[in-house]
Amino acid sequence: MRPRTSWSGSFATNWPEAGPAGAHYNAPPMIKPRVDKLMDQTDSHYAAVLVAAKRARQLNSYYRARGEGCYEEYTPSMVETATRNYLTIALEELAQSKIKYEYRDRA
After folding, report:
1. 3-state DSSP percent of the chain in helix, strand and coil, to 5
2. Can you name the residues that pair with 8 across neighbouring β-strands?
3. Residue 87: inside a domain, yes or no?
């Protein structure tokens, strides 16, 4: 089986030939937790992105301050996880309904 080469700019990527007919590749989900679990906790994709991004920044601030020996007002991770990616941790917290949010009044 000879690999095909897909050319994009100066980067070449080797793609294997197609397998037997009907063969399926069972790749893990792109993100964990799945988007449908996140949507159970929020009312829109936009809200999920904003809440997770804000929480990821809070986690980043917490761990940075902890490394410097001082503690800020942010709390550590509220879920057990093997990853050290703050956005993934924030998404897992949101999916497990550890994070609650509300919209501000436009007053």
Report:
1. 40, 10, 50
2. 11
3. yes
